[in-house]
Design a protein that fits this description.
transferase, 17 helices, methyltransferase, 2 domains, about 15% strand, SAM-dependent_MTases_sf, CFA/CMAS, elongated, alpha/beta, lipid metabolism, Rossmann fold, four-stranded mixed beta sheet
Length: about 425
């Protein structure tokens, strides 16, 4: 096809009823669109077929993961420019049945079919997983956790850096190092929990052991860390041994629902509760409440979505559900606080770290891009592309207040009413020494 880019640009704009804010560079080398804008690189006709068969976010994601689409130029700027067309407008006007009622749109669709070539739908990339029929059983949760976390510890070392902390850092300033910001986050959690030597800490979703090691080394507590990922557990145990902390830190491959050796003095749950699911959240909160001694504290660090007028109409993010966090569910902050209170907790403090997560994700993307060839060798090209798109898009989502992240400090307050909290509890607002 001569000048495929101009043809694609014209047809897509007819289909969407809006100008394309990015440049298109097509497989024949042609280009069309704003010359100074980032370019959407359409490497082959298969990319067009993917979008025709699955208009909207999932079709774009499949083309991106398969390498049929790419972005040339500033990734964040391109995603920002495309957000209104793909994410902010939702799926209305994405349904082919709706769109094809318009004669001009029908003509544009026929033109895209000609551009796409063979009408058969391409198979989804092998990195895509199907949503489980029965959500958040122990078996399906283990499958979902394995998909996300058992990518390879070497790959995560590239992304996360030496701290190996896979949750929002706590930045003293935007130009601080990622390692300093992650150290400060772990210390913030420890100070909110009020850790003292000899206490017993349960770290739910312990990841690669960073929180467990920090709490044991810096505060003298005994820690049990639980994860469903065998790769994480093996890595964490090796780190614990290297720090000489095997007498104080135990790492288990165990579902939080199977932990029965309470009571614990304190519990940390950092970036784990997003995997629990709405239907299981009260059970999750009740389990943690049961495992705490009276007066014990819980620090729940969790991503939140914005509430909707009609909560029954909320749909999970197609790209993240298919490629990143299978079966994951985000809840509004108010829902999380309510469920913790229903389980018997007294919520004492809520702190938003939304801007901190945008900074964290941008550093992770930079780490990934700095070792891109090695990352592709370790995880495979498709999985590396998943992580680059996911982290960049999430950085923008946090920065534009589409999602947030919050630390909720709660207490299992005894019946007599003493919470054990100081009168002026926010002493953790000061910078760590």
């Amino acid at each position: 096809m001569a000048d495929a880019a101009s043809r694609l640009k014209s047809l897509v704009e007819q289909l969407l009823g809006a100008p394309l804010p990015v440049r298109i560079r097509a497989w024949d080398g042609s280009q069309a669109g704003p010359p100074d804008a980032p370019a959407l690189v359409v490497r082959n006709r298969r990319a067009v077929r993917r979008l025709l068969w699955k208009p909207g976010e999932l079709g774009l994601a499949r083309a991106w993961v398969a390498g049929d689409l790419d972005i040339e130029g500033d990734l964040y700027a391109a995603l920002d420019l495309m957000a209104e067309l793909v994410w902010e407008r939702g799926e209305d006007a994405r349904s082919l049945l709706q769109m094809l009622r318009d004669p001009e749109v029908r003509a544009a669709a026929r033109g895209l079919v000609k551009v796409a070539g063979l009408p058969l739908p391409p198979a989804p990339p092998r990195e895509e997983v199907r949503r489980a029929r029965h959500l958040h059983t122990k078996r399906t949760d283990k499958r979902a956790i394995s998909h996300h976390y058992d990518v390879g510890n070497d790959f995560y070392e590239i992304v996360l850096g030496p701290s190996m902390v896979y949750s929002c850092a706590y930045w003293p300033s935007p130009d601080a190092t990622l390692e300093q910001a992650q150290h400060d986050k772990l210390e913030l959690v420890c100070r909110k929990l009020g850790l003292t030597e000899g206490q017993r800490l349960l770290d739910v979703g312990c990841g690669w052991g960073s929180m467990a090691i920090h709490a044991a080394r810096e505060h003298g507590v005994s820690v049990v860390g639980v994860t469903l990922s065998h790769e994480q557990a093996a890595y964490a145990r090796k780190r614990v041994a290297g720090e000489g902390l095997t007498d104080r830190v135990e790492i288990r491959v165990q579902d939080y629902r199977d932990v029965t050796d309470g009571p614990y003095d304190v519990i940390s749950s950092i970036g784990m509760a997003e995997h629990v699911g709405a239907d299981r959240y009260l059970e999750y909160a009740e389990n943690l409440h049961r495992l705490l001694r009276p007066g014990g504290r819980l620090l729940n660090h969790q991503i939140a979505r914005r509430p909707q007028r009609d909560e029954s109409a909320y749909d999970v993010d197609e790209f993240i559900d298919a490629y990143v966090f299978p079966d994951g569910e985000l809840a509004p902050l108010g829902t999380t606080v309510t469920q913790l209170e229903r389980a018997g907790f007294e919520v004492r403090d809520v702190e938003s770290l939304r801007e901190h997560y945008g900074l964290t994700l941008r550093r992770w993307v930079a780490n990934l891009e700095s070792q891109w060839p090695r990352a592709m060798r370790l995880a495979g090209p498709g999985r590396a592309r998943v992580w680059r798109l996911y982290m960049a898009a999430c950085a923008l989502a946090f920065e534009h207040n589409r999602i947030g992240v919050n630390q909720v400090l709660a207490v299992r307050t005894p019946e007599e009413g003493g919470s054990g909290m100081p009168l002026r509890a926010r002493t953790w607002g000061a910078e760590p020494a």
